[in-house]
Amino acid sequence: MNPSFAPLDPVIHAPVRLAILSILASVREADFVYLKNAAGTSDGNLSVHLTKLEEAGYIVIRKSFKGRKPSTTCALTETGRTAFLSYLKSLESYLPHDFKENPS
Amino acid sequence: MNEPDVREELRIIRAMVEKTRRSTAETGGLFVFWGGLIIAALGGTMILEHFKQYRWIWLFWTAVVVLGWGYSLFYGLKRSRAKTAKTYAEMATRHLGIACGSGFLLACFALPLLKIYPTDVIPVVFSLIAGIFFFVFGGIQEWPLFLWIGAAWWAGSIGLAMVPPQIRNPAFLGLFVAGYFVPSLLVWLKYRREQRVR
Q1: What string of pLDDT tens digits covers the 198 residues of chain B?
Q2: Is ipTM strictly over 0.90?
């Protein structure tokens, strides 16, 4: 690996977990159903990824009831926000210098 | 990791942020409702004034306020239950709406009713609060047009203070349609357009 490339956080470096953090970085909180639909994944797969992110301290998961229905909401923690921003910074190091002028 | 992989990761991030932005966009439904209600109420007030039925005006506005707040409460609860993702902008907009709504209720209804100031001051006070609402709303949603609408309401409040009291209500109706109802429709149409793109 080129020494100028910054290492990528393995907790975030998976498409579903990256998608989850991208969503949570732009909202205050999102529920399980929203994350599942937006990330285009299954219940079981999403649960596995959410648990990994929670174990890393990147998100908090709250379980409650909306009326009689159980509801699971997720939110980014300060640690998660810092890790996500640092991941974005690391990604930048893999891109050519002219990327900002021509991002497409 | 090679460049196409990085581009794919960036595509995922962009897609998720964009999807979230669309699904949490302001619907404008409540704005349009209040706009229609106030225009109808202003029309009703002018009719009552024309027939010199002044004592009915307060009763009429009480009904309008109760209907408006009742529907707003119902709409807010319904939206809050249906929401699957909540944003900070949405939370700020809701608090702004409650703050300015309470301001309108006090300044344009309760205080004149308590005879703190005469009713012909209402359009001027309304314009001041509407200016605050649109300016802050434009800032939260990052819509420069609404910053200008906020400024237009403040200019309108000075204009309304300078015109004779007998033409203040029709002038206010014009300002309301241009500075409230049209922008509300714009928010609503923008939301509808974005939902169709999804």
Answers
A1: 677 788 888 899 999 988 888 877 777 888 889 888 988 988 898 898 888 888 888 888 889 989 998 998 898 888 877 778 888 888 898 899 899 999 999 998 899 989 999 988 999 999 999 999 999 999 998 889 889 999 999 999 999 999 988 888 888 889 988 988 888 888 888 888 877 765
A2: no
- Taking any CB pair shorter than 8 Å as contact, residues of chain A touching chain B are 5, 8, 15, 18-19, 22-23, 25-31, 33-34, 38-39, 66-67, 88, 91, 94-96, 103
Helix (H) or strand (E) holding B151: helix B144-162
Residue A24 and residue A77: Cα distance in Å, rounded? Answer: 9
- Closest B-chain CA to A7: B1
Strand partners, A70: A65
DSSP state of A9: P
CATH number of the domain to which A20 belongs: 1.10.10.10
Extended strands (E) in A1-104? 29-31, 59-66, 69-76
Please give the residue of chain B at the shortest CA–CA distance from A71: B84
The distance of A71 to chain B (nearest Cα, Å) reads 10
Where are the domains positioned within chain B?
27-197
> Out of A29, A39, A91, whose CB is closest to B10?
A91
CA of A30 to nearest chain B CA: how many angstroms apart? 4
Contact B20/A at CB under 8 A: yes
pTM for this entry: 0.76
Q: Residue A40 — left, alpha, or beta (φ > 0 → left; ψ -120 to 50 → alpha)?
A: left
The C-alpha atoms of residue A42 and residue A46 are separated, in whole angstroms, by: 6
What type of residue is A50? L
Domain range for A45: 15-92
